[in-house]
């Protein structure tokens, strides 16, 4: 079993019209043994920027603490929040720095630009090779089923409610086909006015 499959995860980020959504499953397990059903894998950096970290749970938490620290330093120096695209480069350089003893995480970054509320989505591998997307990005142990659902359900210029419904259906459907993720999900919908978090009930097996 790959170290990336040790704890299991399913993460989806999707872009809409001046809004963005990111969600993850809630299962925390050791291989096929479930230990907790309230473990969120999406972390807040600031009001318009979230990061999902799939992979090894301990590395994900360490990575988030380091990123939060770096963002606080940036905020003190620049007196503003970091842009999503700049944050993507920061995460990439942090991962590449550790390429010979890497963090076993697959980040998915989702945010809105402060100036024009343009959605930004990117993902990367363990050593920080960035891939940006205009539609959606997935990570975790169920990428094949998640890609299939997202490709068939994503539409351009979706509003916040339609975006939430689409991400929710993609997540729940993808998780049902993966034994290492599941037990419900949490979805964050980020608009220029607010961020709404909703918890979904999924199959509890």
UniProtKB/TrEMBL annotation:
Function: Non-catalytic component of the proteasome, a multicatalytic proteinase complex which is characterized by its ability to cleave peptides with Arg, Phe, Tyr, Leu, and Glu adjacent to the leaving group at neutral or slightly basic pH. The proteasome has an ATP-dependent proteolytic activity. Component of the proteasome, a multicatalytic proteinase complex which is characterized by its ability to cleave peptides with Arg, Phe, Tyr, Leu, and Glu adjacent to the leaving group at neutral or slightly basic pH. The proteasome has an ATP-dependent proteolytic activity.
Entry similarity comment: Belongs to the peptidase T1B family.
GO (cellular component) term, any one: nucleus
Coiled coil: none
GO terms classed as biological process: proteasome-mediated ubiquitin-dependent protein catabolic process
Compartments where found: Cytoplasm; Nucleus
Pfam families per record: Proteasome
Record keywords, A-Z: Cytoplasm, Nucleus, Proteasome
Name the record gives this protein: Proteasome subunit beta
Protein origin, superkingdom: Eukaryota
Complex formation: Component of the proteasome complex.
Alphabetical list of InterPro entries matching this protein: Ntn_hydrolases_N, Proteasome_beta_3, Proteasome_bsu_CS, Proteasome_sua/b, Proteasome_suB-type
Name of the gene this protein is made from: PBC1
UniProt-listed PANTHER family: METALLOPROTEASE TLDD, PROTEASOME SUBUNIT BETA TYPE-3
């Amino acid at each position: 079993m790959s170290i990336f499959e040790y704890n299991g995860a399913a993460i989806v980020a999707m872009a809409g019209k001046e809004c963005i959504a990111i969600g993850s499953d809630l299962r925390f397990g050791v291989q096929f043994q479930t230990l907790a059903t309230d473990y969120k894998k999406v972390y807040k950096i600031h009001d318009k920027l979230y990061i999902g970290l799939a992979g090894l749970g301990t590395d994900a938490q360490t990575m988030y603490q380091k990123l939060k620290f770096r963002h606080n330093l940036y905020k003190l120096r620049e007196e503003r929040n970091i842009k999503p695209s700049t944050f993507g480069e920061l995460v990439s350089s942090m991962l590449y720095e550790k390429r010979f003893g890497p963090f076993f995480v697959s980040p998915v970054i989702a945010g809105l630009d402060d100036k024009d509320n343009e959605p930004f989505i990117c993902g990367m591998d363990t050593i920080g090779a960035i891939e940006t997307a205009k539609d959606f990005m997935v990570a975790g142990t169920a990428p094949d089923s998640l890609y299939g659902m997202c490709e068939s359900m994503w539409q351009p210029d979706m509003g916040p409610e339609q975006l939430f419904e689409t991400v929710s259906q993609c997540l729940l459907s993808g998780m049902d086909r993966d034994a290492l993720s599941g037990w419900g999900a949490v979805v964050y919908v980020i608009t220029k006015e607010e961020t709404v978090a909703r918890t979904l009930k999924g199959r509890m097996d």
